[in-house]
Amino acid sequence: xxxxxxxxxxxxxxxSVGQDRVHVFGEVPAVAGIPDLVAVRFDEEAxxxxxxxxxxxxxxxxxxxxxQEAATPCTASELAQRVGLSADYLRRVVLPGLxxxxxxxxxxxxxxxxxxxxxxGQRVVTxxxxxxxxxxxxxxxxxxxxxADAAYIAVPAATxxxxxxxxxxxxSRGIGVISVGPPAQKxxxxxxxxxxxxxxxxxxxxxxxxxxxxxxxxxxTEGQVSPVFGWVLPEDFRP
Length: 239
Description:
Structural class: alpha+beta
Order of helices and strands: HEEHHEHHEEEHEHHEEH
CATH class of the largest domain: Alpha Beta
Number of helices: 9
Radius of gyration: 19 Å
CATH architecture of the largest domain: 3-Layer(aba) Sandwich
CATH topology of the largest domain: Trna Endonuclease, Chain: A, domain 1
Mean pLDDT: 90
């Protein structure tokens, strides 16, 4: 099911405008859970500017929060208070790392985000796929309301037919639904998701975009996949 979604999610969730900038990734940790698929429309100009300036992708939620708070000059103590870290740890470990990676510059006691530390995620969409347990997929998709502009669940066409009136309840919560048919058929969007307010996703969507960018720059589309006792489950048997 996931291969079919990978090939279709760009058109289904982003339309034809800018689809060439959409990249799809698996196993990218979000602030809550790991969505089955993350589709990101990158700002390619921002990526090129960052490469030229040596600005590296952010890796943690704390780094994202600091980068966002430092849009205006802040002292280390102010940043520590805002992101919930000790001032000592921030000064010794976090701030030097963000300076080395091109995100922050220092002027006396003040730290500020550099002009070349640009956001790269123009739109972020997550998909939770399940063969039968659509309720679990729905629960997981709701959690991605902290990390994406829109969230979908995807189920086989046979499962979608059994959902019946529950589709209306899902729609009322703003989650999109994709029906995946036989291999010869393209997945179909049964319900369009509601765009999640940017204030809700401010940190989470940037974190997903940064982690996806790190994979993209390495030429990867998958994060770390943990084997089950040394054996990776075949695609058809994954939940």
